[in-house]
Amino acid sequence: MGRPRTNDTAVRERLVACATEMFATRPQESVTVRALATAAGTSTAAVYTLFQGKDGLIREVRDQAVAGLFQDLAAVPGSEAALEDLGALAAAYRRWGHEHPHLYTVLFGGAQSFVPSARVGDRDPVRPLVSAIDRAVADHVLAGDTTLIAVSLWVALHGLVTLELAGALDGTAAETAFRSTIDAVLRGWATPSAFPGLRRADPAL
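Below the sequence we write its predicted structure tokens.
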């Protein structure tokens, strides 16, 4: 009987899938190479052959999460109204978190943490958000440093999505919290002339 293959695409995909779930649901130090290999139905040698070890597998999981989130945010169609685009990007971010809860946890709170910085790469998930904020500032709708505005919006989004994934917010309460919180963040950065148009009598609308 021949030895099982340790370097084909199917094995690689199984390892990434198993690692995504395990790193999202367990402390990183408790996830061993042997446990990863067993979960994926392969040998420990496969982890080293394909990823040069556990750290390499973690990087692959995170890279896939970053690429997926960027793809979804970059696909949001732009318009002439930067604030509407920011709302659509916030909704897309939230939707991605709901659709990929394990990847979200790995990317923003599990095996790897995300720390917003002033340096934004061309394929950084925050790039579409920064571009929309730049336009809003140029149009004198928002006032402030683009990076600070982006971080404040991300902090609000991350808190909301994390609470939803933990089951602390759901249904109408989650929807109302999402809309009212994003509106409040944008109002906080709005210019005096734009502020009245951002006020809503019913935050659920």
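The chain has ten helices and no strands.
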